[in-house]
């Protein structure tokens, strides 16, 4: 550990040649990793934003909005909410080429090792499933566990209401189709 902490970044990809700064037309059979880190701590507030995949869909205004929130050290939930709204906008842009979805998982790894990792799932469409990021637990050489791509799904989607709804204006009709305003229906949970 270094005080103050230094930025490090590892990227695992099966189509990007990061050392050559280009993407492959076709995914490779195996993943490669690239790692970089600061050599000495930066003096100023630093905001690190890494765009991977359909990065051309992110315009400078999007990046600047995130950079301001990061350098001002806004609460992480506000930053996640802003990033999700930006991802939804990016998904609709022609530069995305239909490669950005509107069902997003996020994960927060705090710099304090004593605090737990958090994750969440946000959908812009009603769904009968919740997707959870994969988890690897490594406690020494012999105590290792992996949970790969866990999903919680409704057993009978036809007889149950969706588990996830897009966030909408509290006075808008609820996306579940009940005919009620969001604040009197599924919005009660989120308000």
What can you see in these coordinates?
With 191 residues, this protein is α+β, with helices and mostly antiparallel strands. It has a domain at 1-43. 17% of the residues lie in helices and 23% in strands. The protein contains three helices and ten strands, in the order E-E-E-E-H-H-E-E-E-E-E-E-H. The protein has a two-stranded antiparallel ribbon with strand order 1-4. Strands 2-3 form a two-stranded antiparallel sheet. It has a two-stranded antiparallel ribbon with strand order 5-6. A hairpin with a 3-residue loop joins strand 8 (135-139) and strand 9 (143-147). Helix 1 (60-71) packs antiparallel against helix 2. The longest helix is centred in the middle third of the chain and has 17 residues, at 76-92. 7% of the residues are buried.
Task: Give the strand order of the largest sheet, numbering strands 1, 2, ... along the chain.
Answer: 1-4
Computed Rg = 20 Å
* Order of SSEs: EEEEHHEEEEEEH
Please report the total strand number as a whole number: 10
Determine the mean pLDDT.
Answer: 79
Stretches with pLDDT under 50, minimum 5 residues: none
Instruction: Characterize the overall form.
Output: globular
Terminal CA distance reads 40 Å
Number of helices: 3
Strand content: 15-25%
Largest sheet: 2 strands, antiparallel
- The assigned structural class equals alpha+beta
Helix amount: 10-25%
């Amino acid at each position: 550990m270094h005080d103050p902490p230094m930025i490090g970044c590892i990227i695992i990809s099966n189509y990007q040649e990061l050392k050559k700064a280009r993407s492959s037309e076709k995914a490779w059979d195996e993943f490669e990793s690239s790692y970089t880190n600061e050599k000495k701590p930066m003096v100023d507030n630093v905001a690190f934003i890494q765009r991977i995949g359909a990065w051309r869909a992110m315009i400078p205004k999007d990046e600047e909005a995130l950079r301001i929130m990061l350098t001002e050290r806004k609460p992480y939930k506000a930053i996640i909410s802003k990033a999700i709204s930006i991802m939804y906008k990016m998904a609709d842009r022609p530069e995305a080429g239909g490669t950005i979805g509107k069902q997003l998982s996020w994960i927060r790894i705090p710099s304090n090792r004593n605090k737990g990792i958090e994750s969440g799932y946000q959908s812009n469409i009603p769904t009968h499933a919740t997707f959870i990021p994969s988890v690897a637990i490594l406690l020494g050489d012999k105590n290792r566990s992996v949970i790969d791509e866990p999903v919680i799904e409704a057993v009978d989607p036809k007889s149950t209401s969706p588990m996830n709804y897009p966030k909408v204006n509290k006075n808008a009709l609820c996306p579940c189709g009940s005919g009620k305003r969001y604040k009197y229906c599924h919005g009660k949970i989120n308000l």
